Amino acid sequence: MRFSVLVRRIPWTVSTVELREHFSQFGKVVRVNIPYDKSKGLHSGYGFVTFNSQNAYKSALSERHVLEGGIMTVFPGKDSQPVENDE
């Protein structure tokens, strides 16, 4: 099962290493991908983080994310499995 989130508004100074470290507080991060624009030499400001558990995924979606002074927004990834309600 995949539990991926889309992260937008990633500060241009943040790399995959910092993004992995930030999201590791919610659980085990399996993969981090930040697409780069080779013509500009910078990343595109968005990326994907994949967790190995639904709990980590849900925790990441429920929190506010600030990294290097920038507020990032987090959304469910397209390839993520549906999340069951606890209610």
Describe the structure.
This is SRA stem-loop-interacting RNA-binding protein: mitochondrial-like isoform X2. Helices cover 20% and strands 36% of the residues. By secondary structure, it is α+β, with helices and mostly antiparallel strands. It has one domain (3-76): RRM (RNA recognition motif) domain (Alpha-Beta Plaits). The strands form two sheets. The protein has a five-stranded antiparallel β-sheet with strand order 2-5-1-7-6. Strands 3-4 form a two-stranded antiparallel ribbon. The radius of gyration is 13 Å and the shape is globular.
Secondary structure layout:
Elements: E1 3-8, H1 16-23, E2 29-33, E3 36-37, E4 42-43, E5 46-51, H2 54-62, E6 65-67, E7 70-76
Antiparallel strand pairs: 1-5, 1-7, 2-5, 3-4, 6-7
GO molecular function, one term: RNA binding
InterPro entries: Nucleotide-bd_a/b_plait_sf, RBD_domain_sf, RRM_dom
Domain RRM: 3-87
Offer a few descriptive terms.
RBD_domain_sf; 20% helix; 2 helices; 7 strands; two-stranded antiparallel ribbon; 5-stranded antiparallel sheet; Alpha-Beta Plaits; alpha+beta; 87 residues
State the order of secondary-structure elements, H for helix, E for strand. Answer: EHEEEEHEE
Number of domains: 1
Residue-averaged pLDDT: 90
The CATH class name reads: Alpha Beta
Strand order of the largest sheet: 2-5-1-7-6
The structural class is alpha+beta
**CATH topology type:** Alpha-Beta Plaits
- Runs in which pLDDT lies below 50 for 5 or more consecutive residues are none
